[in-house]
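Record type: ASSEMBLY
Status: queued
Input:
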Amino acid sequence: MKTILVIEDEQSIADTVVHSIEREGHAAVRYERGLDGLERLKAEGCDLVVLDVGLPDIGGFELCKAIRAFSQVPVIFLTARDEEIDKIVGLEIGADDYVTKPFSPRELAARIKSVLRRSAAGTVPGGGTAAPAEGLRIEAEKLQALYGGRKLDLTRYEFKLLALLAARPGYVFSREAIMDAVWGGDSPSLDRTVDAHVKSLRAKFRDIGAPADLILTHRGTGYALRDDS
Ligand code: CA
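Status: finished
Output:
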């Protein structure tokens, strides 16, 4: 039996989701507010998150990024709008799958089953068993990163960039995806911004004796954190 966190503010939809989870023999824990769900996830963990895009207190995408800063738990989005799908499918926010409203309980159950199976096999892009470079620890609450127990003195953007890469080790993030996730709306929108921050991050790693290939460059594509799984 798996424990599945359901974060959805609409009662009737939440009921459908919980029902289809329980019918599959899993346990559902439901939250109306995103930050409550996040707190529960941090405290106790879970096997899968079913996440509504439109929540009363925090956007589903923002919440997913917050989850990815510390957890590889698989995330399935519930979405009502076509324009949201592109963003989810682009996987820039680290989701594993999505279901469009209105959906049938059977459809959702099938997606959950498939994501849990892939997750167990370690092949879910945003979840599974990918392990960040050995020795690296991200402490999301303190906005702090350590390598081999030594603290990295990072700026806010350097930290956000590293946390993004560390959320999905081995996954190549494009410069655009990094810009969007790390700088968001107030971006200076220059590819060189990303390159410059990667460069300074590498220098800081080097200063504390970390290996040079921790952050990998994929020519013409982007950057990835070494996967030590
Ligand atoms: Ca909603």
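Annotation: The first helix runs from residue 11 to 23.
Annotation: The radius of gyration is 18 Å.
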